[in-house]
Amino acid sequence: MSNKKLPTMDMSYHGGRGFNSVHELMRAIVLRAIEDYNSSSDLREEAVSYFEEDEEDHIFSFRFICRHLGMDPEKTKWAIFNATHRISTRRRAA
Question: Whole-prediction pTM value?
Answer without folding.
Answer: 0.73
